[in-house]
Amino acid sequence: xxxxxxxxxxxxxxxxxxxxxxxxxxxxxxxxxxxxxxxxxxxxxxxxxxxxxxxxxxxxxxxxxxxxxxxxxxxxxxxxxxxxxxxxxxxxxxxxxxxxxxxxxxxxxxxxxxxxxxxxxxxxxxxxxxxxxxxxx
Length: 137
Known about the structure:
Blueprint: H1 17-40, H2 52-76, E1 82-84, E2 90-92, H3 96-105, H4 111-136
Antiparallel strand pairs: 1-2
């Protein structure tokens, strides 16, 4: 039998448990991003940049890389195999972030290929924004 972990949240908001959980998940996503930036993948804490402007630039670049990784990972994350443990628990063989990073690594091998990839993403974003504006008119 698998044991489920209980999670208690205390709040003074007069909302349903689902709504409170949804609100809580937003800052949690930011914390998860910082975890990857600081220790898991980008190791920003180990880089000793001398100026604030360099630190800000590096932070912007790594947040951008993290965001692209998550977006790419979401596309096919359902296909990631699941691993089972002896205690009966299950989880994906790789995290959403790691899955996304693995997907964009081939694109990043050559600078020109990466630039083409980014331009394609920008064009797709423009088209989505325009169609959203048209739908809302």
